[in-house]
């Protein structure tokens, strides 16, 4: 029996993904041996641009008590995924179901790990698989992650803003990793949590916000975030959580040309925060830019600082 991928829309409705793109993404998964199913509300147009809470909960209820091996994958992110935070107990009973998503799914993926110790895949949604400009190596990494394999990623020489659905990619030379704060030696390893910082902040004040003690925390944003927005979100994260007790913090890449990719700007921002943060590694390819790599919420990340190389593992 084939493993199944179920596509749902737990935030934005996915209506802007074109039929050709949907066909392309479905083909990639089917050719890789997956049986692909679409929830009836995926790609349906809602007046508000986001799906209803009822439609999202119906998906979770249908999978309640499931015995098949299923990857439950979001169409893409958007906003309002936190609408179902108070119903995450439904996921607790979904046996053999692995959630996969990125961006606004951050709150759900971290929430189920914090509350129920359920691991998930961050960085892969259906829109990513629909990208016609994906390299073969990127497809292989996606499929390896869906199979929960250990994967090694190397820093790529070039990258782009990730807006493939708006315009063909314009590649620029990548920025090397930068390390700030305490020396961490050649390698650092730890349990990985985090994702999109804006979505993660929706967990503030709830029982679903992770305990960051000794964790490796990934913080990434939309590619074209302003310096002001980034500072605002980072300061809020520092004040609302115990992120200062993390083993390390990873900043994802920003779009080509953004001053946030520059060492002097991050230095300035960290000095403005005026809080003793753990070591920070910036310009890492956990991001909205492309190429971007997945990681496992509740899994492990190993960073080889000298090689600019990442290893992710489920266990």
TrEMBL record:
SUPFAM superfamilies: Class I glutamine amidotransferase-like, LD-carboxypeptidase A C-terminal domain-like. InterPro entries: Carboxypeptidase_A_C_sf, Class_I_gatase-like, LdcA_N, Peptidase_S66_N, Peptidase_S66C, S66_fam. This is Muramoyltetrapeptide carboxypeptidase. Residues 5-123 form the LD-carboxypeptidase N-terminal domain. Keywords: Hydrolase. Pfam families: Peptidase_S66 (PF02016), Peptidase_S66C (PF17676). Belongs to the peptidase S66 family. One of its GO terms (molecular function) is hydrolase activity. It comes from the Bacteria. It comes from Lactococcus lactis subsp. lactis (Streptococcus lactis). Residues 189-303 form the LD-carboxypeptidase C-terminal domain.
């Amino acid at each position: 029996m084939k493993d199944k991928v179920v596509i749902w829309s737990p935030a934005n409705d996915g209506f802007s993904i074109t039929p050709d793109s949907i066909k392309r993404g479905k083909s990639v998964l089917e050719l890789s041996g997956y049986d692909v199913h679409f929830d009836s509300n995926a790609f349906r147009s809602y007046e508000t641009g986001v799906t209803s809470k009822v439609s999202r909960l119906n998906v979770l209820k249908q999978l309640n008590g499931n015995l098949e091996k299923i990857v439950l994958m979001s169409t893409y992110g958007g906003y309002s995924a936190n609408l179902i935070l108070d119903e995450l107990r439904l996921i607790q009973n979904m046996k053999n179901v692995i959630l996969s998503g990125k961006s606004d799914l951050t709150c759900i993926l971290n929430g189920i790990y914090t509350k129920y110790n359920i691991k998930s895949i961050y960085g892969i949604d259906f829109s990513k698989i629909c990208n016609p400009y994906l390299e073969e190596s990127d497809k292989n990494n996606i499929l390896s992650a869906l199979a929960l394999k250990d994967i090694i990623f190397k820093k790529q020489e070039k990258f782009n803003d990730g807006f493939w659905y708006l315009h063909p990619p314009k590649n620029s030379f990548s920025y090397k990793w930068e390390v700030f704060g305490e020396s961490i030696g050649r390698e650092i390893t730890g349990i990985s949590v985090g994702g999109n910082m804006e979505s993660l902040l929706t967990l503030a004040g709830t029982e679903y916000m992770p305990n960051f003690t000794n964790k490796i925390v990934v913080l990434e944003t939309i590619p074209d975030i302003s310096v002001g927005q980034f500072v605002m979100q980072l300061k809020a994260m520092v004040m609302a959580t115990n992120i200062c007790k993390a083993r390390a913090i990873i900043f994802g890449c920003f779009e080509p040309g953004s001053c946030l990719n520059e060492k002097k700007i991050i230095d300035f921002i960290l000095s403005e925060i005026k809080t003793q943060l753990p070591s920070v590694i910036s310009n890492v390819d956990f991001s909205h830019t492309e190429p971007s790599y997945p990681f496992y919420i509740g899994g492990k990340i190993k960073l080889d600082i000298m090689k600019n190389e990442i290893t992710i593992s489920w266990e």
